[in-house]
Amino acid sequence: MTADGIERAASADEEGSGPGSGGSAAEERGGARDGGGDGRAPAAESPGVAEAVAALEEDPDEEGADEATPQPVFKNVEEFVRYRFVPVYIRPEGGQFRWCKEWWRHPEAVSRFQALWHAWEVLRWEPGTGMAVWYRDHLDFQLNILLGDTGPFRECTSRRHQAPRPLPVEPAPQGWFEDEW
């Protein structure tokens, strides 16, 4: 829904030509402008607010939606890594930067790349500072972890994958934790 839809709803109410019989939204719902006849004081809404709220709550998938839903650029995380991340964010291998050509074998890396991809798909549509926010809040933070010498690729090189070794863990005794869900 666009601001234009809100303006149309507000102007229709101001003209006394709201949806239906021409009365206000409160009158259409069976109540009068004085609070609906239930003893309450008149609503503290300015004219058009109810219609504007209703316009915002409309299902964008309904026929006649003003704007098409943006489609993702990449269909999955692998496409994002292969066609966006690797060619654009080039770093020298070695030293503080690590990489694994089989990055998809590292669950932590996959999870972080998915978070980067999803945030990128959303923030690319934000006018003005959307991509700057993505760099600052998402990429810059994740890049140091993903490619860092203590990150998920710490034991790999670009030529050799080394399976990550999970930390050892012992199961907690029965009843140690209460179920929360």
Topology:
Layout: H1 3-14, H2 25-28, H3 49-57, H4 77-88, H5 107-123, H6 130-147
Helix pairs in contact: 1-3, 5-6
Could you explain the architecture of this structure?
The protein is mostly helical. Among the domains are: 3-57, no CATH class; 77-147, no CATH class. Helix content is 40%, strand content 0%. It has six helices and no strands. The longest helix is centred in the C-terminal third of the chain and has 18 residues, at 130-147. The protein is globular, with a radius of gyration of 27 Å. The protein starts with a helix and ends in a 34-residue tail after the last helix. Residues 1-49 have low confidence and may be disordered.
Mean pLDDT across all residues, rounded? 74
* Poorly predicted spans: 1-49
Beta strand %: under 5%
Relative helix content: 25-40%
Query: Taking Cα atoms only, what radius of gyration do you get, to the nearest Å?
Result: 27 Å
Number of helices: 6
The run of helices and strands is: HHHHHH
- N-to-C span: 36 Å
Give a short account of the largest sheet.
none
SS-based structural class? mainly alpha
Shape: globular
Q: What is the number of E strands?
A: 0
A few lines on this structure:
This protein is mostly helical and 181 residues long. The chain contains six helices and no strands.
